[in-house]
Amino acid sequence: NMRPSHMKNIVLCSTPFIHASFFFVILFYFVNKIFSIISENKVIKISLAVSFSAFLVGSLSFLSRVVGARQADEYDFSASLAVSGVGFVFWFLILVFMLMENRFFFKKYFFEIFSLIFYLIAYYFVEVSGRIFESVIILVLISCLNLSGYRKLFFNILILTFFLISYTERFSLSQFGFGV
Fold this sequence. Notes:
Elements: H1 4-14, H2 22-38, H3 42-66, H4 71-74, H5 86-99, H6 103-108, H7 110-122, H8 129-134, H9 137-144, H10 149-168
Helix pairs in contact: 2-7, 3-7, 5-7, 5-10, 7-9
């Protein structure tokens, strides 16, 4: 008879068959568990998340070569990415709102916060950071629905504004840019 936690781990470990970015999700999940054992202190956990994320981003090129990933030769893994930074500002503001919440929110949604910290650190350095973040973005958005007070209001305004800006840029494109 399997316990639900064992079943959850089996399902989680099978997700890389869907997409390779889930290897990172699994890594974040287990590192998050380790961080929770080490400390419940907000500052310590954020420091651990930032340190681990920076280390992972810094060693990603080396690690991808060691394991023979095809991305090792396809991607640059340097700060030469040509991105606007609008997404960075948007997600940074979301992270700030999440960090301003109480310790119960922080404890419950630290996995989502950790994933967002990694994405922001990797934003300008790793071309596949968006693909990795896409694997957890729904969890981040759902967790933000539990923001309280003005933070939830600002989150809703940010989402609506980002949506409107994204689609107004597509008005001139055939089928809003989704057509072939």
